[in-house]
Amino acid sequence: GSSDEFVSLEFKHAGGQPGGKIVSDRTGVYNTPGQTQAAMHFYSTNDAVDNLAMTITKEKKVGIGTDAPVSTTHIYESTTAADSSVGLTIEQAGIGDAILQFLETGTQRWVMGLDNSDSDKFKISSDGDLNSNARLTILTAGSVAMGPGDTGAAFQWTPTFHISGTNPGFILADSDCYATDRATDFWSVGLENGTV
Fold it and tell me: What is the CA radius of gyration of the chain?
C-alpha cells in the first residue's frame, strides 16, 4: 500500500505491566524503491509511561534521547543536572586507556583520553595511542605540558617555553596591545648566558 505504517513490538511483565517497546515507522510508498523511509525507535517504560531511549534512522544515524539525530551519533538531554550523571562517559575497567579517537581515513588519527599506564594523565596525541606523540598533557595535580614529554611543571611548552615555581607568571603585553601595534608594545623575557 501507499499509506504510512507503524509496527511495534511491546514487552510486558508477568503482571501485564508495560516493559518497553520497539517501534518501526515507515513512510512513503511501500513497493516503490527510493520512496520508503523507515526508522527504529526503542522505548523504555517508567510508571507506565513510554520514554524514548534510542532511534536509528534510515540514514544509519543513532539518536540517544532524540528521534531526530542530526549526526551519526547524537546525544540529547533536557535536565537540570550538572554532575557526572549527564553527558557521555567513557569508562575503562581494565589496565587499558579510556580514550576517544578521531580518524581521517588513511591520513591522520588523533586520540585523547586518560592514560592509565602514566599516572592517569589526560593526553591529546597525534598517534594511535596516548603513549606516543602526546601534544598536550594535563597531570592530575593540574600541571600542563605542551609538546612531547612532561616535567610536572606548572606550565611547560617544549622545547623553548617553561614556567615553574610557586604562583609563576608573566605579562607579554599591556591591555592595549593588539595585532596592529605589537611592533611597539611587545615585551619578551628570556635568558642570555644565565642572565635575564
Answer: 27
- Cα dihedral 182, 183, 185, 188, rounded to 10, equals 90
Task: Please state, in angstroms and rounded to a whole number, the distance separating the CA atoms of residues 99 and 117.
Answer: 13
DSSP 92: -
> 150 with 139: CB under 8 angstroms?
yes
User: Smallest Cα–Cα separation from 137: which of 129, 128, 147?
Assistant: 147
pTM for this structure? Answer: 0.66
Closest CA to 100 of 109, 143, 108: 109
Tell me whether the omega of the peptide bond preceding residue 148 falls within 30 degrees of 0, making it cis. Answer: no
Express each pLDDT in 42-80 by its tens digit.
999 887 788 899 999 989 999 999 999 999 999 999 999
Would you say 73 and 62 are in contact if contact means Cβ atoms under 8 Å apart? Answer: yes
Q: Is 196 helix (H, G, I), strand (E, B) or coil?
A: coil
Residue carrying the nine cell digits 517497546:
21
